[in-house]
Design a protein that fits this description.
Length: 416
């Protein structure tokens, strides 16, 4: 599509994607939803294992540790695999691990062994870590680089949809027919057989998809802004300052996310007087707002540059955290809900900006940015220590995280 400037010069406007990439984009976008389901279903498993396997809260926390710990282990190997064999085989490898970990729930349930479940969760986590490492640069490459931020935010909207579906599915299948005092793990086994079957089917179908040729990052192109071409090929990956800042920003971003999600129900119970069940229902709206934010953010990026929008949303979340920490009743609780709306675009936008103009370094860079998820395994412990005394005061801490994200979006995203 072309428009004409005031000087009469034709300017090519970047499309969201091209027709030849559409089928591939649909398949890869669906992956974002599936790993969103898997991650948030872990929260339901955590509580279910406490009941059925008689675990303490500290012991059941290994569910999250196994899943998120896999990101720290698989980030670099997944990037190397992707660089060696390409995006399509990287997706198939991730789906194979995802399905394999799901099917391992069958012998784990038969043995009623929590360590066995831990192994299954870790392998599943390696699968979703691989998918996340591969899918972000894959989606970014399916079209003009000038619209890569929009494509990644659009795909991440389906990840937000998955975060809504995951807890609903887990609650329905694991808690719906659970008998008090029962130690039966049949529901867990059947649920993960279904998940493994769906993921294996997606892998088989995707193996038949012919991925169109992508732009080679090693060659020169007519418009370097449109393709992910390294404008400074003499630099090593860690000499690109925007990439290093993206890794830092992603670490703090996931740290803020994990802490905010971990203590949402506590805030509703302690500050609003809700029961845990009522607070859990409000959490559905919490995730719906994140989904809404991703669609709204993707639309706004047509008019506001992605880094500027990132900085604006980060500044809004600093204000939200200040309101939450004041314990003002409904105004503070509404601010807590809106925290997820403004958080919505941060993960995908940081990811996309960090991959700009890295050319042949793109796959390796994706590995390191994906490893930022490790921040989610550390920050909740810090917030938890403060929340033991006052859960509202704990929400002062994410301000540090959003300040780092604001600086990245305001200044340090620039490719130098």
């Amino acid at each position: 599509m072309q428009t004409t400037s005031s000087s009469g010069k034709e300017i090519t406007r970047a499309r969201f994607t091209e027709d030849r990439y559409l089928i591939t984009l649909i398949f890869v976008t669906s992956l974002f939803m599936f790993w969103g389901i898997a991650i948030t279903m872990g929260d339901v498993l955590n509580k279910h294992f406490q009941t059925v396997l008689s675990l303490t809260k500290t012991q059941s926390a290994f569910v999250q540790f196994a899943i998120f710990g896999a990101y720290g282990v698989m980030g670099i190997p997944a990037g190397l695999f992707m660089k060696r064999f390409g995006y399509k085989k990287g997706v198939l490898f991730g789906l194979s691990l995802f399905a394999g970990g799901s099917f391992l729930f069958v012998p784990a349930a038969a043995a009623a062994s929590f360590p066995f479940f831990g192994v299954a969760l870790f392998i599943l986590g390696c699968g979703i870590s691989t998918l996340e490492t591969v899918a972000h640069p894959f989606v970014a490459s399916l079209g003009d680089q000038r619209t890569s931020d929009m494509r990644i935010n659009f795909a991440q909207a389906f990840n937000a949809l998955g975060t809504i579906i995951g807890p609903w599915m887990g609650s329905y299948f694991l808690f719906g027919n659970h008998v008090e005092g029962s130690t039966d793990l049949t529901s867990v086994k059947m649920l993960y057989i279904a998940i493994g079957t769906v993921i294996a089917t997606i892998a088989v179908l995707f193996s038949f998809v012919k991925v169109p040729e992508l732009i080679d990052p090693h060659v020169a192109v007519a418009n370097p802004d449109a393709a992910n071409v390294d404008t400074h090929p003499e630099k090593g990956l860690f000499e690109h300052s925007h990439f290093k800042w993206a890794v830092v920003a992603q670490f703090f971003n996931v740290a803020a996310q994990a802490g905010t999600w971990a203590f949402f129900i506590n805030y509703g119970h302690e500050k609003m007087g809700f029961t845990d069940a009522v607070a859990s229902k409000w959490m559905i709206l919490f995730f719906v707002l994140m989904l809404t934010g991703r669609f709204v953010g993707t639309f706004l990026m047509r008019f506001i540059a992605p880094p500027r929008l990132l900085a604006i949303f980060a500044a809004c979340n600093i204000v939200m955290c200040l309101l939450i920490s004041q314990s003002l009743g409904w105004p503070s609780f509404i601010a807590l809900l809106m925290l997820n709306f403004f958080f919505s675009i941060m993960f995908p936008t940081i990811f996309s900006l960090g991959l700009k103009n890295l050319g042949a370094h793109t796959q390796q860079a994706s590995s390191f940015i994906s490893m930022g998820v490790v921040g989610g395994a550390l920050f909740p412990f810090v917030m938890g220590a403060v929340a033991e005394h006052d859960v509202a005061s704990a929400y002062y801490l994410p301000i540090i995280c959003y300040l780092v994200i604001f600086l990245f979006g305001y200044k340090f995203y620039k490719v130098r």
